[in-house]
Amino acid sequence: MKKRRLIDKAARWLITLGGAATIFAVLALFVFLFIEVYPLLRGAKVLKEKTFSLNGKIISLGVDEYQEIAYTVSHDGTIEFISLSDGSIVNTYLIAGLKNSTITSVDKDENRLVLGTNDGRILKVLITFSESFDNEKKVIIPEVSEKEPVQIDDQKRTLRNITSRSDDSATVTVVSTEDGRLLLKSTEDVSTLFDGEKKEIKRDITDLVKRYQPNGLHEPHNSILYSSGLGNGTDITSLALDHFMENLYVGTSSGEIFHINISDKENPSLQEKVRVSDKAVTTLGFLFGDISLVVGDYRGGVNIWMQVRDETSPSGWMLKKIHTLKSHNAPVIAFAPSLRDKGFVTSAANGTIYLNHATSEQNVLIFKVPATPAALTFSPKADGILAASSNNNLFQWIISNPHPEITLKTLFGKVWYEGYEKPEFVWQSTGGTDDFEPKLSLVPLIFGTIKGTVYSMIIAVPIGIFAALYTSQFLHKSLKIIKPVIELMAALPSVILGFLAGLWLAPLIERVFPAIVIMPLFIILSIALALYLWRCLPSWIKGKYRYGAEALFLIPFIIGAIYVSIQLNGVSESVLFGGDYRQWLLHILGLNYDQRNALIVGFAMGFAVIPLIFTISEDAMSNVPNNLTSASLALGATTWHTAVRVVLPTASPGIFSAVMIGFGRAVGETMIVLMATGNTPIMGWNLFNGFRALAANIAVEMPEAPVGGTLYRVLFLAALLLFVTTFIVNTFAETVRQKMKRRYSKL
User: Residue 143 carries which DSSP code?
Assistant: First the structure.
């Protein structure tokens, strides 16, 4: 007796320890996932802030990628290189081509400065930084080179605004003068049969922005056009030219933007004229990639516009506002884009500086300086901001901003991405260019998970439950070996099922799809025929079948129905689908047929889930007390009525548990979904296209995700969503099961 008590006590402690260990493991998993996701919830922060004194009035500003040396450009052409460690001047360079002129405007194209002067000339200055090592210490060496100045305005008027872009063979520069003239200069290397030559074009395109609406020019629905040109109180306030050197945008004091197509440099044309603000446009600039145009106005508004396809426009494109950021409450006077992502820095006349992100439409950080910012720059690695103020101070902020594109809206809401015609749910984590805009909406993945689960459960639940009902209530005991055979199906690796589904089942169903459509009808007819023949058979033949083994009589008929359906595949395609079921689905129902689609996943994942539902449901039905079934039969109920009216309700808690366990298996399935679908994160209930589930997405993306990066942490967020969803569903299922158990245990 003492030994038995000791064994019972040890068993009780062992079971308790096992339960506690399980709870601890679940909590530890949750904590680990949350720790990996938590950095997404934290915003940007300032790591260090410095202030230095400057000499003279600054018009432009820059910094090397390591934030060790900054440079300032003053109106008199002096370039000073400043050490950001102690504020000392490392080097000074005087632009030789400036002579006695003054810099009045500047445009920055990466490390190339294009300067406009007060005598109508443009100067191009290239500032680079090289690295060397002195006694194993890295030394940053600034280098300056300049080209010969070019007289763009023969009348030597002051250049108020300037924009310029260049590549290996061409350079395009556009300036506006103090009296409102708009001048374009293009230089292009042209190859000839024997030699190369430079083709230079210089045009005055002022008439394009002075002219009233040209004949045939489309008036966008979101614009208000004015009959007054620049000669009636409307001045050019800002210019922006994309790196394709095809689209020029001109901002005006009336709040309008003129979009000029300069792809044909000899014959530029006005594309459209759009009202973007009721106040003057003060700042224009492109985000990284030169697709999205940032527009700042005198009221403090910051909006992002983009060319969007529009069938109502003669050109097929229209400038539309895609993002709106928080107002600065003062004129926006400076803009600096990030060279890493869709972030940018803006400054207002009241001394406020904003770090913004276009995709998430958020002001990530806000800084305040005591005077109006005169120049602004964003470090090449997007980890620092520098601003020169009008009171000759240089401010530096070293920042940490690892996940600016993540908000609840970008994860779970519709976002208007570059290149899209409207806001959409999109998952696309990588692209082919450095200026790619990550699209990290989890909605298509959640939808794909639900879609795959629903289709697989539609197949697995009825088959699993009815098979369990037949096995437990009707099948002869000598044939109970069927149950362990079905249970063995659960041991099949999902990667094998996915492999077979993707490489064998998908091509097979694609070939015999019309036969699949007519197959249910032929199977029903074959069962009806088998039932009729069974009733017509003499008793001595029926007696050879044991009670509960009659279903074996159906097998040849079902196989025959499947064979006939496949043989009639071509005929059914001609009769039902006009000879080509793919074209019929596309033109009649508007559905595309992909070889690896949700139907394939439904079959394959349903096959994987059926053993779980069958086994648990069969155990629940077999454990219904015999006194209940015997009482039902004794009162005259048939076996079928007893199974439906007594066994199913009594076993419903176990059946419900079976369905929920199967649901959990389907939600978390990875390899079948990965291999049997096109793995495309699209939304739509179309049975014949693919999808991407959360679990499959983690398997696909995780090997390519940089540790600690945004994609890495979003994938952990997807895992956390799966974990929490499964936990909530299982908790709910257990609650329902207990209520059902208490209800039917009283029978």
Answer: E
Helix (H) or strand (E) holding 253: none
Q: Where do the structural domains in the chain lie, given as residue ranges?
A: 454-699+724-744
Predicted confidence (pLDDT) per residue in 666-715, tens digit: 998 888 998 988 888 988 888 899 899 999 999 999 998 999 999 999 99
Work out the angle at residue 118's Cα, subtended by the Cα atoms of residues 252 and 181, and round it to the nearest 5 degrees: 35
Name the residue type at position 303: N
What count of Cα atoms within 13 Å lies in the side-chain half-sphere of residue 642?
A: 21
Kindly report the CATH class assigned to 454-699+724-744.
Answer: mainly alpha
277-282 contacts at long range (C-beta below 8 A, 24 or more positions apart) = 277/301, 277/303, 279/255, 280/237, 280/251, 280/252, 280/253, 280/254, 280/255, 281/237, 281/238, 281/251, 281/252, 281/253, 281/255, 281/256, 281/257, 282/237, 282/238, 282/251, 282/331, 282/332, 282/333
C-alpha to C-alpha distance for 740 and 163, rounded to whole angstroms: 74
Q: Which two tokens stand for residue 382?
A: 């997007």
Q: Report, as ranges of residue numbers, the positions in the chain whose pLDDT lies below 50.
A: 212-232
Q: What is the per-residue pLDDT for 485? A: 85
* H and E: helices and strands count for the chain: 19, 31
Q: What local confidence, expressed as pLDDT, does residue 709 receive? A: 92
- Residue pair 489/579 in contact (Cβ under 8 Å)? The answer is no
For 200, what's the count of Cα atoms within 13 Å in the CB-facing half-sphere?
Answer: 5
Whole-angstrom distance, CA of residue 619 vs CA of residue 478: 17
How much is the pLDDT for 441? 95
User: pLDDT tens, 217-276?
Assistant: 333 333 333 333 344 457 899 999 999 999 999 999 999 999 999 998 889 999 999 999
Q: What is the pLDDT of residues 385-397, one digit of tens each?
A: 999 998 999 999 9
CA 206 – CA 176 distance, rounded (Å)? 9
| Lookup: tokens for 729 | 């569903």
Q: How many angstroms separate the CA atoms of 148 and 168, rounded?
A: 18
Task: Give, in order, the Cα–Cα distances in Å from 316 to each of 240, 245, 258, 309.
Answer: 21, 19, 17, 6
Predicted pLDDT of residue 196: 63
Can you list the alpha helix ranges (DSSP code H) found in 623-669?
A: 626-634, 639-642, 648-668
Tell me which residue of 190, 104, 98 sits closest to 150, measured CA to CA.
98
Q: What is the 3-state secondary structure (H, E, C) of 264-309?
A: CCCCCEEEEEEECCCCCEEEEEECCCCCCEEEEECCCCEEEEEEEE
Cα(174)–Cα(152) distance, integer angstroms:
9
The span from the CA of 262 to the CA of 264, in Å, is 5
